[in-house]
Amino acid sequence: MAGRWVRAGTWVLLSVLSLSAAAKDKQPSAIVVGAGVAGLSAAYELQAKGWQVTVLEAKAVAGGRNGLATSEWIGNSKAQPVLNHYVDSFKLKTLPAPEFVRTPSYLIGGQFFSSSDLKDKQPATAEALARFEKSLDDLAASIDDPANPAANNTLFALDQITVAKWLDKLQLPETARLLVNQRIRSRYDEPSRLSLLYLAQQSRVYRGVDDRDLRAARLPGGSAVLAEAFVKQLKTLKTNAKVTSVSQDKDGVTVKAGAVGYSADYVVLAVPLKALGQIQLTPALDAKHLAAMKSTNYGWRDQILLKFKQPVWDSKARLSGEIFSDKGLGMLWIEPAMKGGANVVINLSGDNARILQAFGDRQMADQVLIRLHQYYPKARGAYSGYEIRRYSTDPSTGGAYLAFGPGQVTRNWRLWEQPLQRVAFAGEHTDTLYPGTLEGALRSGQRAAKQVEDLYAGKTIDVPGTLVAKKTAPAGAAEKGDKPGFFSKLFD
Ligand SMILES: Cc1cc2nc3c(=O)[nH]c(=O)nc-3n(C[C@H](O)[C@H](O)[C@H](O)COP(=O)(O)OP(=O)(O)OC[C@H]3O[C@@H](n4cnc5c(N)ncnc54)[C@H](O)[C@@H]3O)c2cc1C
């Protein structure tokens, strides 16, 4: 492939370093494609080990899926150890989260309820939510190892069921169901699109981690600040460098971005699956990878920042933290005032976000303002503008983050953790335990860097892939360790 490019003569081939990995006395080299936090952590770790690293980023700035929030909620080191490791090593300033934002709360019919308010004022809804929590926890507890969630036949069968089907069986009262739907679509995707095994596995990962640990601090400046800290450490980062092809042979890799070619010993592809599909790979991916690349479900989540000249909520109102509404407004929170105003970030998720794709930005902001105005009658008068970030239709993302659909956990388990010769993969979607988060993205970068080092050292990497049911017993049949009747009810 490299030869063909040179013959074409229309662009320059820059040799990052010798292609010969066998020449161990030379500095090893890697190209990292994508400067989200996954690519940045991979590059940082490799550079720290003495590698020559070139990061290529399609956009004008590094950072990837930085949200509209100007201040990110982050967990403590118990909940997000890798994120906290980098926050500490880069000496980034964090602020402790106020107590009242550390647990989820609710907006029902325009009225705000903390979890404890709900118990007092809407006991039926609170009880139904507790029943949902308990059922989900039972599912989570049935998974011994979240790194191998389909360890038995029954768990394997959970992957064939949608979360919506399971919720139907719980028969929650209407308000509770709306709030649960909202919680699931905000964190993952629409319940009707989500694998129950994925929800159970994720709940198992966070089992025993308190909400208060997950929402322990704010990172002023958001994840962009973390990305900037990485960038300051990196020697070679090229922005506006959209990679269009990657080819590898026994000697090395060649990566093309615009009119420029780069060569190195290894490449880390740290781009979301939709973006990966736009890169020509030589040799091509096999059918399994291609199918996973095209069909893996991503959650939909768009962010709308509504700006107000002054706060439109009364000073005692709590519009901050993880607030689930029964009216499809998604999660809301107040952002620190900008230019003397006050802003609300609204996260529209799941099918609420999909439906609004038909609207232009202005119409979308109007639709959200109309709904907010019903609760806060000063909203229209104080409204001064909006910003919108649509992740789901951004061709470099194609969704907000991984949210495995039915059948996809077992089919694609750890697929992208396995390097393909000189190509390693990183990105939140490649992390086994914490997909869809900064923690997962950072972990994946560390893992990919280690894999590249191991490959260079001549080690073989063999990631256990597709999950298979251990037995051929019918779905729902009792197995050792099952609670009698616990699973079978799910498969009626
Ligand atoms: C609305 C929203 C809110 C979120 N909130 C939180 C939160 O509160 N806490 C949390 O932990 N996580 C949150 N996340 C998730 C978190 O932001 C992501 O998991 C993380 O940023 C993903 O990082 P990444 O490096 O895997 O991918 P990305 O950030 O998407 O990075 C990929 C990079 O590759 C680049 N790229 C794509 N194609 C090419 C190409 N051909 N050539 C070169 N470069 C290319 C892209 O431009 C991008 O910069 C949120 C995500 C969204 C969408």
Automatic annotation (TrEMBL):
<dbReference type="InterPro" id="IPR036188">
    <property type="entry name" value="FAD/NAD-bd_sf"/>
</dbReference>
<dbReference type="InterPro" id="IPR002937">
    <property type="entry name" value="Amino_oxidase"/>
</dbReference>
<keyword id="KW-0560">Oxidoreductase</keyword>
<dbReference type="InterPro" id="IPR050281">
    <property type="entry name" value="Flavin_monoamine_oxidase"/>
</dbReference>
<feature type="signal peptide">
    <location>
        <begin position="1"/>
        <end position="23"/>
    </location>
</feature>
<comment type="pathway">
    <text>Plant hormone metabolism; auxin biosynthesis.</text>
</comment>
<dbReference type="Pfam" id="PF01593">
    <property type="entry name" value="Amino_oxidase"/>
</dbReference>
<comment type="similarity">
    <text>Belongs to the tryptophan 2-monooxygenase family.</text>
</comment>
<keyword id="KW-0732">Signal</keyword>
<protein>
    <recommendedName>
        <fullName>Tryptophan 2-monooxygenase</fullName>
        <ecNumber>1.13.12.3</ecNumber>
    </recommendedName>
</protein>
<feature type="domain" description="Amine oxidase">
    <location>
        <begin position="37"/>
        <end position="452"/>
    </location>
</feature>
<keyword id="KW-0073">Auxin biosynthesis</keyword>
<dbReference type="InterPro" id="IPR001613">
    <property type="entry name" value="Flavin_amine_oxidase"/>
</dbReference>
